[in-house]
Amino acid sequence: MSNTDRLDNAAEDAQGKMKEGVGKATDDEQLEAEGKWDQTKADVKDKVEDVKDAAADKYNDLTDRDKDA
After folding, report:
1. What are phi and psi of 63, to 5 degrees?
2. Distance CA 17, CA 32 (A)
3. Are the C-beta atoms of 46 and 2 separated by less than 8 Å?
4. How many Å apart are CA 2 and CA 8, to the nearest integer?
5. pLDDT, one tens digit for every residue, the chain (69 residues)
6. Residue 49: exposure state from Cβ atoms within 10 A (0-12, 13-18, ≥19)
7. Contact 31, 44 (CB under 8 A)
C-alpha cells in the first residue's frame, strides 16, 4: 500500500473522529453518525489494502521476487 493511501485513510479517520466529537458536543446525532461512518470507511479501506499487501507479499515469495541474489 502506498504511503499516500495510508495518509488518506488516516486523514479520513481523523476527520471522522472530529465530526463525531463535534456531533456529540452539539448533540447533533446526524453529524455524530457521519463521523462514525467516516471512521468505518477508513478502517475498511485499510483492511482491503492490508489484504492486497499480503497477496503481493505471497506472490513475491512464490516467484522469488524481492530476494537478494
Report:
1. -105, 10
2. 9
3. no
4. 10
5. 577 888 999 999 999 999 999 999 999 999 999 999 999 999 999 999 899 889 988 999 899 876 554
6. middle
7. no
In single-letter form, the type of residue at position 20 comes to E
Tell me the three-class secondary structure of the chain, residue by residue. Answer: CCHHHHHHHHHHHHHHHHHHHHHHHCCCHHHHHHHHHHHHHHHHHHHHHHHHHHHHHHHHHHCCCCCCC
Hunting for cell 541474489 — which residue is that? 69
What are the grid coordinates assigned to 42, written together? 477508513
